[in-house]
Amino acid sequence: MLEKLAHFNRERVPERVVHAKGAGAHGYFEVTNDLTQYTKAAFLSEVGKKTPMFIRFSTVAGELGSADTVRDPRGFAVKFYTEEGNYDIVGNNTPVFFIRDAIKFPDFIHTQKRNPQTHLKDPNAVWDFWSLSPEALHQVTILMSDRGIPATLRHMHGFGSHTFKWTNAEGDGVWIKYHFKTEQGVKNLTADVAAKIAGENPDYHTEDLFNAIEAGDFPAWKLFVQIMPLEDANTYRFDPFDVTKVWSQKDYPLIEVGRMVLDRNPENYFAEVEQATFSPGTLVPGVDVSPDKMLQGRLFAYADAHRYRVGANHNHLPINRAKSEVNSYQRDGQMRFDGNGGKSVNYEPNSFGGPTEVNEHKQAAFPVSGVAENVGYDHHDHYTQAGDLYRLMSEEERERLVANIVAAMKPVQRDDIKLRQIGHFYKADPEYGTRIAQGLGLQVPQEV
Ligand code: HEM
């Protein structure tokens, strides 16, 4: 009895500090287009090649038991089990993000979580932060639009969001962005319907995904990339590493890469979904990162979170273990449950035939110049792309967007916060700002 009760007391591990509520599925990725001129990644080397993968979808702000149908970005984290080790694309269902400097992330997330005193969600904090961080406007417009609440996890696109680098066998690189396009079509929920579902079935999205796959109705996405020549980054009309911006598809059209199909449910939620660890730093030869400041911060944050949440040996768990041979000189640590390298040599370099570093897969050299300093972005056009998005919407879409924002901002207690935010909407498009002001019973401030 003591053993049983003691184990029971230890059943919980820390939930993810963000993206705590999620659902996962296994599947495969199949290459449909030869892009070997751009990347030497072995899993993309041949049309028809299939690679097993695992995906975890999630909401961002809520806790592990929170409702699925809330207005929030959705996490879209894909793990490819390639023959060169694992490759993770840890993206969202939106192509941009609220901030573009990693140091702001904990502050931003504090505003999305609970007030330190009331333990309630806090619209004052949300809009205070956004109104003081105008770079958030593009993502706020997406979040408050119809796309803010997907109908199911199957009916939304996925994006790598950041700029990454592909390198080919000759060592030549290109900048790329990933787009997963749903084959089910995009479908969303209105705020009213979503609120009703959240009350009746908080696990609606989780259940839908599981049931679809169980019934053999396998959801699929086509993967595309936008490709930018390296030298274009110096002259493009905005910083192409700024994650609050999208690249125009007129400048860099979508190029098909392959197709992802989800065809198998996890056998055990804890072992496969809760213990899954995705990191933007889990890369394979032929794929690299970019100078995007957010991405650079994320390269540290994820593996650190995994060591805290799952343990130093999280990569040995079946869901995280590469399906190819992996050699390292890492040994010991809590819950080292495999053979721990046995009696083999545990240092490098050595004279005993142990695995040696593979230099051919080191990042290709690239020129760096200028002064290194902790600087902000010097590019301040937060408004053009948010305004373009507004102008692309039909009148019905604009009505719902304005209604969603007005409902979300109404509980904000301070008019100065509301007015500052209205100023940003106005700068994106005067009609956009004016309609929000009217909905809140306020005047657009003079100085905008
Ligand atoms: C999860 C940090 C930005 C997508 C997480 C986790 C941390 C984190 C610590 C929990 C990891 C775990 O416990 O396994 C950060 C930081 C960011 C950032 C510091 C900015 C500097 C982003 C962006 C995206 C994103 C821009 C999407 C483009 C995700 C996803 C998950 C996640 C999908 C859930 C992964 C899973 O399903 O296990 N993030 N994040 N994050 N993040 Fe971020």
From TrEMBL:
Cofactor requirement: heme
Binding, heme: 302
Transmembrane annotation, as ranges: none
Gene Ontology BP annotations: hydrogen peroxide catabolic process; response to hydrogen peroxide
One annotated GO molecular function: heme binding
InterPro entries: Catalase, Catalase_3, Catalase_AS, Catalase_clade1/3, Catalase_core, Catalase_haem_BS, Catalase_immune_responsive, Catalase_sf
Entries under Pfam families matching the protein: Catalase (PF00199), Catalase-rel (PF06628)
The organism's place on the tree of life at top rank: Bacteria
Enzyme Commission (EC) number: 1.11.1.6
Active site: 19, 92
Ranges of residues in domain Catalase core: 1-356
Protein name: Catalase
